[in-house]
Structures
1.
Amino acid sequence: MTQDEEHATRLDAADELARFRDEFHLGAGIYLDGNSLGLLSHRAERTLSEAVTSWRERGIDGWTAEDHPWFYLPEEVGAMTAPLVGAAPDEVVATGGTTVNVHQILATFFRPDGNQTKILATELDFPSDIQALTSQLRLRGLDPDKHLIRVTSRDGRTIDEEDVVAAMTDDVALVFLPTVLYRSGQLLDVERLTRVAHERGIPIGFDAAHSVGVAPHSFSDWGVDFAVWCGYKYLNGGPGAAAGLYVNRRHFGRRPGLAGWFGSRKDRQFDMDHDLIPAESAGAYQIGTPNILSLAPLLGSLEMFDEAGIGRVREKSLNLTGYLIDLVDEYLSGMGFAIGTPREEKRRGGHVALEHPDAARICMALKAKGVVPDFRPPDVIRLAPAPLYTSYHDVWRAVEILRRIVGEGQHEKYPNERGVVA
Ligand SMILES: *Cc1c(COP(=O)(O)O)cnc(C)c1O
């Protein structure tokens, strides 16, 4: 064992969260894609299997079972998620999918009025979010070319908060931004952006898909109006898991833009009245019958976040990504790599964007060696060490494998997809 490898094992020995690693199905290799699809834990597997048992044994009575009744599961899982976003239990519900929830938020909170007709986003946003914003504008008869403002990036990687602030002009009706940029991993200053938007009378919300489960938030204290995020990324809820929706309580009672009977007050839902009486909670923004089997794994998974504490998760995350950046500087210098993620801790989310002109083939070579990254064209290798199951030794080994691959030109035998992408 080299000195560096010994150092990695010492970091693992001192890691307070190390015990959670054994709770996951880790597979044979090194999994660094937890920001796209988190791994399955034994606890999530157990709560999923309990939901299946409830269906098998109770049939329709599963909706009202004593233990985790399905009727309240979106609210129950929402309340368990609330500490991760810094909200009250009734300000969060687990429902739908992220893109669907963006539609619900826009349908509810985008109120073009007079001169105030524009939506503010960024040019580095995730495509699905922009597609949702664009279609919402079209639904109101507004031309997205004129009414969707995308703040431009100065360096192609990050968004300068100053530029967002400058774009919050009096024709903006709503601001919708990522907390963490999906490609570079930049963490925006959510508190400041919210304060400025509100000074200018503009409602503001966030897509927190790349921060929930890896960084803390204080949505209620900061006064954020609404937010959405995925259940299947850092929350490890499984493919297509129920997504998250936060609505600040000052908006409770606002009629959902996309209405359906599951947004009803619980005690009135089975009155079967044609008029919706919306719940006085984030639950009002649900639409139809919850996907119980996509909610159930989150019960087990979120228990682990409760035990670990999001503060400790963030601390380990920053240590892991900081360690990864240090190793890249040390092991991979002169090989054509660049770090696309801000180095300051307060501007860094949970993953590191490693840039290289041969990123696509390097990713293929990594996968062949059992390291799972993901590739974002044209030149980004995203590496996400998930704090609950990634060790420092995993990070060390991944960089060591990268050094060998590129040092020995092993990636050159793979086709260069960049030509196709460009
Ligand atoms: C992952 C991700 C999505 C995915 O949305 P789905 O509706 O779950 O497919 C949307 N937006 C952002 C910012 C994401 O990171």
2.
Amino acid sequence: MSQSGAVPNWTNVSEARPTFVSHLECGLTGERLPADVPHNLSPAGKPLLVRYDLAALADGISKAQLAARPPDLWRYREFLPVRRSRNIVSLGECLTPLIPVPEAGADLWIKDEGRLPTGSFKARGLCMAVSMAKEFGIARMAMPTNGNAGAALAAYCRAAGIEAFVFCPDDTPQTNIREIALQGAKVFCVNGLINDCGKIVGDGIDSMGWFDTSTLKEPYRIEGKKTMGLELAEQFGWELPEAIFYPTGGGTGLIGMWKAFDELERIGWIGSRRPRMIAVQADGCAPIVKAYEDGVEFAELWPDAHTVAAGIRVPAAVGDFLILRAIRDSGGFAIAVSDEAILAARDEMAAETGFLLCPEGAATYAAWRQSVRDGRIAANDRAVLFNCATGLKYPMPPAGTPLDRHLPIDYGSLA
Ligand SMILES: *Cc1c(COP(=O)(O)O)cnc(C)c1O
């Protein structure tokens, strides 16, 4: 698909194309705000959603034109908010493969997001947020993170020449903390959880001149994560699967995919059939599951949050009502799995298929199995699991049998 020569055009960013953002809208009240100026939350304190002139967008691009473009995130340029190509900050956001899992004896697929820059799907959101920050001339960005978002912020900020300040819980995996530092950001390890880190960012905005890049407190990370929905639809030939199992922390990706499906229907590229959106959380931190089961619109703060799946250890999500709305409108559900089930699912998938999931991705596999067992979905329903980061970024059990080269090797004993 590359346009010329031996070097593939992975970044596809030089071509000028029209953009279609019309305004931003409060996700709760619908209040309209102007595009082309920096925003955080709406006046009601809720996430903002980016709106497009979809009629013009529909005239501006066809499925056939899209199909001819290079295989990267920027192929969806008309659906994205960046106005000027020169502001696009890219580290090579490839399309991610959809891999069937025949071993499961079901219509089961893994969307492997571990292939993206910085090894997680946080790259999708942060390439967009940082490109928009560049468009607005923002000089300093800050965020609380459980690791992967901070790594992506650091990388894209370095590429854009923007200063980055990152605050993690002090038990964040060392790999994350060190990659953040190597990629040029200032990184701080806080003796608390992500919401405690978020308070430090919020309180420092005025004195430090930071732009708050916390999950859903700026509007463009959703637009980047939305490309997961566009990509899924295109990869399945514009027929959506029956169910999507999404490891839910702040919920950016779930909200983003739901928004993508809505936009695709409005421009006539898909029909009204939707996947059931299934939010997966861990037993030790399941605020969305509790709110779903209690039938309420907003989630309560989850006390003493803990799980091996750090990416979904989010005790309070500012977009809770948007996550719950997508789950309910889609006929989906929210489900919690134990840490034991998460690690067992990771080990089993790796041993049986050769696919090393990250713990959050493994949580979706554990949840899928539990849902099939409980009859909440059928094995022959086409289901997609999100492996949101590379399994290589996480601690693994020790292995490797010692072998003394000075002694005769008993080859028969190795098998
Ligand atoms: C951030 C993250 C999640 C949660 O994603 P949201 O869209 O914020 O809910 C899940 N898994 C991993 C590995 C993450 O980094």
